[in-house]
Amino acid sequence: MSAPLTPPPPPHEHSASTAGRPFTGSTTAPAEDAAHIGPAGSAGSAGDGGYGQDGPGMKTELREAAVTAVAVALGGVLLGVLWWWLAPRVPLVGDAVDGNWVVYVKETEGEQAVGVDGTFTLLALALGAVSALAVFLIRRHGGVPLVVALAVGGLLGSVLAWRLGVWLGPAQDVIAEARRVGEGATFDAPMKLGAKGALLAWPLAALVLHLGLTALFGPRDPEPHLPADPHLPQGPYGAPGA
Hints:
mainly alpha
């Protein structure tokens, strides 16, 4: 004799019996919850004041960049003094011909003029490296305004050093100087930067070294955390299960 079969509960009883148990199947998130599942927390950025926080940050970077440019440019005073002190002198000789003074280089095969440009270039490269290292140690976060300020400050410092060295050097009026020292006497030529491309040595050296230091030792941006897909089954540690 077989056991009597239990008839299935009515539809309303089945709904009542399952109302207290959690639903484990997949479903579509409501419209009000979908805004919180956007890519990388896009929702809520307006409420968090993300746009408002960018303003003060950019102002701070521009202020730091302006201070950096001025400080680096003032280093041109040191470059100008060192250039005037260490650069070789070009000897000149004055001669009076029929009452007219003629000035010419005493050593026509000398390399003093090349040494003047070379000294400026080497000193500018050294100061470019020092300024890049100092800026990196003070402001490790870097940023485009800071890099631009470093290059602009280096260029302004080179121009300042060039003009300061010329001003500190021998007199610019070589005819008057030849008359002062007398015929056949040797005197120094004015400071002159023949290769104007040497003015770019400081900013280029500063840019290359600063970018290299930032790439090697600068702070790293945190990896973005992607939200999990609610439609995928989750593993024991929050990772998508098999």
